[in-house]
Design brief:
5-stranded mixed sheet; 57 strands; RNA binding; WD40_repeat_dom_sf; ribosome biogenesis; repeat; WD repeat
Length: 760
């Protein structure tokens, strides 16, 4: 048994980008958002991820632009630090150490640092000292309030930080920093019409003494004259039919933006009563709204882990889509064609997500019905999905109705269309089974494609592409080829062998082995006690083995040549995941409130690798992803990562993976090079310089022996500096242009100069 510290668990991307409100740069070119322990920088024009601000060791809980420098941003994290960044170049400038408990969440606004403790949710003002040192400890702290809401949307700063407004339940509080005085205003739980008056969000007008508050019943109240506690007034506006999630004033204060579960952005004209505009059908529920400092762009964060960039004319100009992980009912799958991660996306869809680029590719609408964002409605959801080995076919199961009496489900088969490069619905089967489908899988053979489904109606069915009854010619639709059962027991799982010559179907405590060619039941395996949960065949040299886990916390391995139990061990396996590209199998075991990982070969009961305490939650979703370039590790503990990489999803919807130290170094260097390349616009001038550099390198290679290392010319260094130097420190464009044009002129001697000699 091998355990090593060279392999560690890392967050691999796909983190939430909707946890905190995004911010827009002052020139409206960039959108910054938190994503796990990173701050990601996106382009508002291309929607592309540019680079990340990496340095925090825990969840980043807030970001805000530096009021003194619009090219810098503050970030704060659960790790107890506040960091200042140059977000254009991705450079860490300063680290502020805040002496708070490790579980404290911190968020920023208007240059002030406010911390909230989860136990009592205290509001504390922290002074960030000015110092020439990069790492500074912030010691000056003062308590503002001991009773605030755990929702950051219920806290807002007004008039450039003169006061802070915060609400909790039915009470609104306004704290003035100069006076060090708090005024409180209360509402009744319900009014005569039964409205719910609890506060849900707050926004302060940038210039007027006006506070906008959102409430559970969908109303918006505008509070005025709150400087005098007994003379305050408020007016009410109402459009939302459910709770108001977020409010935001435009920088000029001429409009108020609101959003909620309706997925509609509402723009209220300030001081004009109920005059408003709407931008509907934005996707998931609106959680946050942000506005650029010039008022030209708005950003909305949505419950489906999406950021929408909107112009001031109320036109959507960009969408930044993250990995949707709210309710994952399908397994984690890999599209054989695009190598994208596939799982549940927005309601009724499957999402295709590139793990390499950490980018959402597209959604595939499975249900093909309009989803209504309202709690309590019984709507169709995608619960099962599977790809064939070539990626030419996709099978999905959608259902609604939690009770068997109300159950309604469809089995759909989708064909890949080469023209559109997407999947197109081919066959819909409305009565595939009489009860819920609990497992399905495609055959592993590339010659013939077969789908097997197992359901709670005590049957499993094999589906093949059918033939026309009149012409007897193969058609591009699917029909049932075989129906199997075993003593009226409910099946629990099914799996094909690597060569598709065998099909294993588990019925409660019994495993049946079938021949797909003749549909003859070859044998049964029933030694271990407990109902079979997971079932999988070995791969490559271990293809003669069959693995299974039971509800009695047993992991068993059968030899199919002798039809005997090869070995078994007592372990509570929550997820058994075979690697289709090697003999290795990963088993996640949950015990003592944490999950352990065991990697082994079925032929050897001794694990190749173990990792204790991978995470604190159960793991029910995992997948091996093939590598583009295999690793060349010779270490026994890391060889199982050479051909593929293991990803898994925790109950908290964190997507994690295992990484080696050498792999992280390689990825870091490649990401730095990617940032440099993406920062340079592909212009004719850039292409000319690139061509010149390639020609120069070719000449250097020819003029030097193979054993000698080519020396880098001064010109190539100059070209690199020209392309990578910030524009504000370069000479004027008129100077560069005149020199560039003069270089093309023919001298008196009749010899044309090198067009780029002026750079050397």
């Amino acid at each position: 048994m091998v355990e090593t510290s060279d392999i560690r668990v890392v967050r691999c991307g796909g983190s939430k980008v909707n946890l905190t409100p995004p911010i827009i740069s002052s020139d409206s070119r960039f959108v910054l958002c938190t994503s796990g322990d990173l701050v990601k920088v996106y382009s508002t024009r291309t929607e592309e991820w540019l680079h990340s601000l990496q340095g925090h060791t825990n969840q980043v809980t807030g970001i805000t632009l530096n009021p003194a420098n619009h090219l810098q941003v503050y970030s704060c994290s659960v790790d107890g630090t506040v960091k200042l960044w140059d977000f254009i170049d991705g450079i860490l400038i300063k680290v502020q150490l805040v002496e708070v408990h490790e579980t404290v969440e911190i968020f920023l606004s208007s240059g002030l640092c406010v911390s909230a403790c989860p136990e009592c949710f205290q509001l504390v003002s922290v002074h960030l000292p000015k110092s020439a040192e990069q790492e500074v400890e912030a010691k000056e702290m003062s308590a503002v309030s001991s009773h605030i809401s755990k929702n950051p949307s219920c806290t807002a700063f007004g008039r450039g930080g003169e006061y802070i407004a915060f609400a909790r339940h039915l009470q609104l509080n306004v704290y003035f920093f100069r006076k060090q005085k708090t005024y409180s205003f209360s509402l009744k739980a319900t009014d005569k019409k039964g409205a719910k008056n609890a506060f849900t969000c707050i926004a302060c007008h940038p210039t007027d003494d006006c506070i906008a508050t959102g409430h559970e019943d969908g109303k918006i109240r505008l509070w005025r004259n709150f400087i005098h506690k007994k003379e305050y007034t408020y007016s009410t506006q109402h459009w939302h039919h459910n709770a108001v999630n977020t409010l935001c004033f435009t920088p000029e204060g001429t409009h108020l933006l609101s959003g909620g579960i309706e997925s509609v952005l509402v723009q209220w004209q300030y001081g004009a009563g109920n005059r408003k505009e709407f931008l509907p059908r934005l996707g998931g529920s609106i959680l946050h709204i942000s506005a650029s400092s010039d008022g030209q762009l708005f950003c909305t964060s949505h419950s489906d882990n999406k950021i929408t960039v909107i112009e001031s004319s109320f036109k959507v100009c960009g969408v930044i889509q993250g990995l949707v992980k709210d309710a994952v009912l399908t397994d984690l799958m890999i599209d054989p064609r695009s190598k994208a991660l596939v799982l549940n996306g927005k309601p009724g869809h499957l999402q295709f997500y590139s793990l390499l680029r950490d980018k959402h590719l597209y959604n595939l609408d499975i249900v093909q019905q309009e989803y209504i964002y309202e709690a309590g409605l019984d709507q169709f959801e995608v619960v099962k999905a599977a790809f064939d080995i070539k990626g030419s076919w996709l099978a999905t199961v959608e259902e609604r109705g939690k009770k068997s009496s109300d159950l309604e489900f469809f089995l759909k088969l989708w064909a890949f269309d080469e023209r559109t490069q997407s999947f197109v619905l081919n066959t819909t089967i409305t009565a595939a089974h009489t009860d819920r489908i609990i497992s399905m899988c495609f055959s592993s053979s590339e010659e013939t494609t077969m789908l097997v489904t197992a359901a709670e109606d005590s049957q499993f069915k094999a589906w093949c592409q059918g033939a026309d009854a009149d012409t007897q010619q193969d058609q591009n639709f699917w029909s049932c080829d075989f129906v199997g059962s075993y003593h009226k027991l409910n099946p629990t799982n099914c799996s094909f062998s690597a060569d598709s010559s065998l099909l294993a179907v588990s019925f409660q405590e019994v495993i049946t082995i079938w021949s797909p060619d003749t549909w003859e039941m070859l044998t049964t395996l029933c030694q271990p006690p407990g109902v079979i949960r997971d079932l999988c065949f070995g791969r490559l040299s271990c293809s003669k083995y069959l693995l299974g886990t039971t509800t009695k916390n047993l992991l068993c391995c059968w030899n199919l040549l002798t039809c005997e139990l090869e070995w078994s061990t007592s372990v509570d396996v929550s997820k058994l995941q075979p690697d289709p590209f090697s003999e290795n199998v990963a088993a996640f075991s949950y015990q003592s409130k944490h999950t352990d990982l065991f990697v082994f070969k079925p032929s050897e009961p001794r694990p190749l690798f173990t990792n204790k305490n991978v995470c604190s939650e159960k793991v029910h979703r995992a997948v091996f992803v093939p590598r583009e370039e295999p690793l060349n590790s010779c270490d026994e503990s890391t060889q199982w990562l050479n051909r593929s990489q293991l990803y898994f999803l925790t109950q908290n919807m964190d997507l994690l993976t295992f990484s080696t130290a050498t792999e992280e170094d390689r990825m870091l260097s490649s990401s730095k090079q990617l940032v440099i390349d993406d920062s340079v616009a592909v212009t004719p001038f850039y292409l000319l310089l690139g061509k010149h550099r390639q020609q120069q390198q070719k000449l250097n290679t020819q003029s030097h022996p193979v054993s000698d290392k080519p020396q880098q010319t001064q010109g190539s260094v100059t070209i690199k500096e020209l392309l990578h130097t910030p524009a504000h420190v370069l000479p004027a464009a008129s100077v560069l242009c005149s020199m560039f044009v003069n270089s093309f002129l023919i001298s008196n001697t009749g010899v044309q100069q090198d067009p780029l000699s002026w750079l050397t």
